[in-house]
What does this fold into?
Amino acid sequence: MLKDWVKATRPEDEEIAARLEKARAELAGRQMAIKEKKLPVLVIMDGWGGAGKGGVLGKVIKNLDPRFYKTETLAKPGEDELRRPFLYRYFARIPEAGKFSFFDGSWMDEVTKARLSGETGDGAYKRQLNSIRRFERTLSDNGYLLVKFFFHISKNEQKKRLSELEEDKSTSWRVEKWDLWQNKHYEKCMDVYDEYIEATDQFIAPWYFIDSKSRKWAELQVTEQLVRSIDTALQNSGRAATVLQNTFPLVSMPKLSEVDLSVSVSDEDYKQELKDLQEELADLHNKIYQKKIPVVIAYEGWDAAGKGGNIKRLTAALDPRGFEVHPIASPEPREKNRHYLWRFWTRLPKDGHIAIFDRTWYGRVMVERLEGFCSENDWQRAYNEINEFEKELDDWGAVILKFWVHIDKDTQLARFNDRQATPEKQWKITEEDWRNREKWDLYESAIDEMIQKTSTEYAPWHILESNDKHYARLKALRTVIEAINEKL
It folds into this structure.
């Protein structure tokens, strides 16, 4: 694509000046429109070193209200970012609804540099391209406008600009070793960029090539294209996205009504096995820290099923410096204003650490679905989006454990009544719990569908039979130990 690109004819200077004045005013006006429509806009500035990305970005944002945009310079990932999944630092920086984010550099820069340096083999590169396509698509499906620019200059023009920057003491710091290497190996870089662009050019997020030989002409191309892209996005706002079929291998799971809840363990056996399992898990916690293996544990279940007690027995075995429990409640405004998975991406652990989620991203296909907090198209798409999210964690090397803590209706009622009758437990029972109980059958149907559609080979569901809480706690510990040993 890049190799075959034919540049548009550059207008005369007078025409550029007139069109630029108009385009700047239009872009400023569109900023208010995206604020009103709550359209999040992510603008990517990629391209050759010395092509003028930063200069054009500086000109473009001068036309905008600084309260409603943010710029990000994405150089090498930092030490903390290197200990997170590949897409973590990008997902963490996506804009809020109604605002711009401008990225000077992006995932393209990170992936192609690693490819050119030989750090990334064919298999890893292919996985990264798949991750990027999925990432860009899920942003678009969830209402984001993604505009991607590649700033293009010739080898000779790049060499000339880099030399001019180096000769001036005030600008020499801007020339990095990578820029010089890129110019020396221009043809090799061109091949990789062309391959990358071809692989990631999607109708929901196409590439726009910017002729960067003239800076004002480059600014005009970017500004006019931003206006056109925003207009198209505003016209398409509210349209339902395509619900994609699952492409990941699934594990066969029983329906909740088929689960035997009569299983139990004696008090004596519970005490001894609990002690033994906690000692074994404590030893494994040291090993995953040494091996830098991340662990993500997700808890879902009926109200009063015993999630809290289960988590407490699990964490009692862990070094407190190496884990964090995330209690997930209703999203805060800054979380509501972003992709629904953002608040989970930003809570992922570093490698060698454990993150435990008390309620999870599966709220999308349970409470949000049944309470009408999202559209049918949103929750229907979410099964595949969640499978993709967990595939990112699996590709990262994480141990992924998903527990459904299961009880029957009578057991829940007995526990609700016990909570209401016990003063020190009354804080655990709310009107919402009683309302949810009235919808038990609807929830059970949604949960069965969720488990069937998201129990993948790399992230299967585990049902914890919790009419006997002791039995469920031991099963959770055994399951965690088994999964970590398998990964080790």
Observations:
- The domain at 13-236 is CATH 3.40.50.300 (Rossmann fold).
- The radius of gyration is 26 Å.
- The chain has a mean pLDDT of 96.
- Residues 192 and 296 are 34 Å apart (CA to CA).
